């Protein structure tokens, strides 16, 4: 986890409409947006450890001192980078209903983390939020207004879903980083642990053996989607406890893969795919993004 010490007030100024380029002299060849875009490219291609003011300057073909005229340091640059990539997120429509809307937003976050895995390495507890981040957060809160949840519960639910996605993305990012560093895939690493398998005997760990023989390690379950639905199931129980019946009585949903209408079942959780084919396409897309 990277935690840079900077000036949060300067980040607020830069994110929320502060001065973005020097006011004197000829028209500058650099812009703040250009500096941020170059920094995002460095982090995407080389990892967060490679990110520095000097490396960004090299990528742009300018001196390091030139960058300091736009952004005071790496900490403020990271705040700007995070808000810049959040602009890629397509906001949910509150008419989706709270469950479909939260699922949609969670998948948007998941895909964002796959494109920019460095985001899970940035300490977020004291990162200054920018306008794109706040627009996204506003849209998510709007999904939960009318559920009967209190303001405190709405905030807790929104944070719960975000934290679930971040945790799942961090595990993928760590595995990818380990593979890049060692040149050994996760599957190859575990396959090589021959010395370990002899200790995991059936008489010593009968439950593990039973789950193993039952296909528990075959990897057929989409772990991210499975976990997301269980989180949403828990939230639905909370919503129902406040006198709401979930968003099944609202307008018909749409397939998250192709956008076609999805008929809502009379009982059980809402369907998210119009067909098995769309569900399989979504699974393959998430597998490809995480590979």
Automatic annotation (TrEMBL):
Superkingdom of source: Bacteria
Pfam families to which the protein is assigned, alphabetical: TetR_C_1, TetR_N
The keyword Glycosyltransferase is assigned to this record: no
Designated name of the protein: TetR family transcriptional regulator
Keywords, alphabetical: DNA-binding, Transcription, Transcription regulation
GO term, biological process aspect, one: negative regulation of DNA-templated transcription
Domain HTH tetR-type: start-end pairs: 29-89
Alphabetized PANTHER family for the sequence: HTH-TYPE TRANSCRIPTIONAL REGULATOR RUTR (PTHR30055), TRANSCRIPTIONAL REGULATORY PROTEIN (PTHR30055:SF151)
DNA-binding region: 52-71
A molecular function (GO) term: DNA-binding transcription factor activity
